[in-house]
Amino acid sequence: MLKKTCSNAVVMFALMVLVTGAGSASAAGSDDQSAPGAKKPLVAYYSRTGNARMVAKALGKHLDAEVAEIPSEKGRGIFTIIGEQWFWGDDRQKPFEKKLQDYSPIIVVAPVYLMQLSAPGRFFIEEVIPDGSEVYVFTTSGGPLAGFTKKGIEELVAESGLIAKGVYGFQAGKTQEVFDTEVADFLKKTPVR
Ligand SMILES: Cc1cc2nc3c(=O)[nH]c(=O)nc-3n(C[C@H](O)[C@H](O)[C@H](O)COP(=O)(O)O)c2cc1C
Fold this sequence. Notes:
CATH superfamily: Flavodoxin domain
Number of strands: 6
Mean pLDDT: 87
Largest sheet: 6 strands, mixed
Shape: globular
CATH architecture: 3-Layer(aba) Sandwich
Bound molecules: flavin mononucleotide
Helix content: 40-55%
């Protein structure tokens, strides 16, 4: 009887050591951005008229992240946009300037056109970001980000072999200063890491 009680105690102790050890391993794991060699976030944006660029700059500032433009080679008038959005025409892009494997998460900022993410954002997600990367998408749009547009972007990210960490929208038509404040407020409530 005493032997059984002792062996139960040993098993309990071993379990406790295992559980505590596992907890501290994950705390010191890849989530800790201050750990040596930890990956830094990167903001990659496409903007035609400046709003997505301002949101990207604000995210870069508040997350202490590098910011780089998605190098679309196409000029974009209304007919090109309609063609790309309704007929799923692809963008054409120069090679991206950063080695994306070195960054995490990758934060894509791009406008919504005709209720879908704009072609440069879609192409970047589908063709450029390495499989398995953790990805956030921030959109700019004339109105609030519609639920089905958000869902479509989440599906696009997942179907591209990436991990969707969040899809969020900012309304266009503001100054850099206002976007800075909005982004700072947003990040207080919704940590991006
Ligand atoms: C052809 C076209 C289609 C657009 N479609 C939408 C739309 O479906 N929903 C929306 O809220 N905004 C729409 N917009 C507004 C854009 O999303 C907004 O102008 C954009 O976020 C500006 O981004 P930028 O300044 O970085 O280019 C559209 C704009 C254009 C030019």
